[in-house]
Specification:
By secondary structure, the protein is of the alpha/beta class. Helices cover 40% and strands 18% of the residues. It contains eleven helices and twelve strands. A ten-stranded mixed β-sheet has the order 2-1-3-12-11-4-5-10-8-9, with helices on both faces. It has a two-stranded antiparallel sheet with strand order 6-7. Helix 1 links the parallel strand 1 and strand 2. The chain is globular, with a radius of gyration of 20 Å. The relative contact order is 0.17. It binds 1,4-dihydronicotinamide adenine dinucleotide (NAI).
């Protein structure tokens, strides 16, 4: 099987090395088609997203990527957002669950976030009005709202979950968020037995910090979804643990929720769990759920022993040693 691979930058290459070893340990015959993206690609090819990368993705229909740095407040636009938009990867799915004995005040968190991945303030329509004024346009459409909301409801139906929580700020942004909320109300009518719960984003943040166990499926717009997934990651031990999928009609790219973590890059400090779990999601997606489960089981076992904790979890184990623990566990 051929998988398009973008190692990314920052901690990307370190965690991707771990991913390759663990995915190969499942026994599947994987050929990696590897391409650079972002600033590294620009240096080598003069473009942030090389044409060969597109060709590989379009042929394989499946990709996995490490984080790619986006300059803050200046410079080139996010290649992550560009890929999601180019391939209409509309569903950003991020499961958040406590693993093993990872320190957390909330042992019972089990939430899956469905984030609309192609519009909202991420549409990139920004305008400098004057040196002291800039505008950004928020785009919400009925078609794109309905398809992500349906995805969340379908998931709830398949998994016997009786409530979907839609998160907006429709009291203030009555037209854009109001439309998203109306779409949720319309979609909900077709799912008998699943309650639609409506929560405003500010209240949602507080509720998640106080009673995260009350939420199972959350569906929301692009920006709120991005922020809520980092918040939820913080409930269960941090960004090193939370995987993600970007799913479109014909193509999917898997990646961790976290970024390139420049503060710890190149130091063997990164926790590869998030990208390994993203790899497990990829295997589920292509019909190898048993192999995905073998990775999840090994991670659960390894993180049930506090001696195996990586630095950000309060332990002393580096990326390479952690990977060895996972590989050994998969052998058992
Ligand atoms: P970040 O997610 O890279 O880091 C936030 C904090 O979490 C840092 O303290 C970092 O050390 C820690 N952390 C992240 N991943 C970790 C891991 N695997 N193990 C242990 N600790 C980990 O967010 P930040 O610093 O805001 O962004 C850095 C860069 O990453 C920016 O250029 C941003 O645009 C980019 N980014 C890229 C994403 C992607 O490629 N999908 C997603 C999010 C951010």
């Amino acid at each position: 099987m051929k998988i398009t691979l973008i190692p990314g930058d920052g901690i990307g290459p370190e965690i991707i090395k771990s991913l390759k070893a663990v995915m190969e340990k499942t026994g599947l015959d994987i050929t990696w088609e590897e391409y650079v993206a972002g600033a590294d690609a620009y240096k080598k090819t003069g473009t942030y997203l090389p044409e060969e990368l597109f060709q590989s993705l379009e042929k394989n229909k499946i990709g996995i990527k490490g984080p790619v740095t986006t300059p803050i407040g200046e410079g080139f636009s996010s290649v992550n957002v560009a890929l999601r938009k180019k391939y209409d990867l509309y569903a950003n799915i991020r499961p958040v669950k406590r693993i093993g004995k990872v320190p957390s005040l909330y042992p019972n968190v089990d939430i899956i976030i469905f984030r609309e991945n192609t519009e909202d303030l991420y549409a990139g329509i920004e305008k400098q009005i004057s040196p002291t004024e800039a505008h950004s346009i928020k785009v919400i459409t009925q078609e794109k709202s309905i398809r992500i909301i349906k995805k969340a409801f379908d998931y709830a139906k398949e998994h016997g979950i009786e409530k979907v929580t839609v998160v907006t700020k429709a009291n203030i942004m009555k037209l854009t968020d109001g439309l998203f909320l109306q779409c949720a109300r319309d979609v909900a009518k077709n799912y008998k037995g699943i309650q639609l719960e409506e929560v405003l984003i500010d209240n949602m943040c507080m509720q998640l910090v106080m009673h995260p166990e009350n939420y199972k499926v959350i569906v929301t717009e692009n920006l709120y979804g991005d922020i809520l997934s980092d918040l939820c990651a913080g409930l269960v031990g941090g960004l090193g643990l939370i995987p993600g999928a970007n799913i479109g009609e014909n193509l999917a790219i898997f990646e961790a929720v976290h970024g390139s973590a420049p503060d710890i890059a190149g130091k063997d400090l990164a926790n590869p769990t998030a990208i390994l779990l993203s790899g497990a999601m990829l295997l589920d997606y292509i019909g190898h759920e048993d192999k995905g489960n073998s990775i999840r089981k090994a991670i659960e076992k390894v993180l049930s022993n506090t001696d195996n904790f990586t630095y950000e979890l309060g332990g002393k184990v580096g990326t390479r040693e952690f990977t060895t623990c996972i590989l050994k566990e998969m052998e058992r």
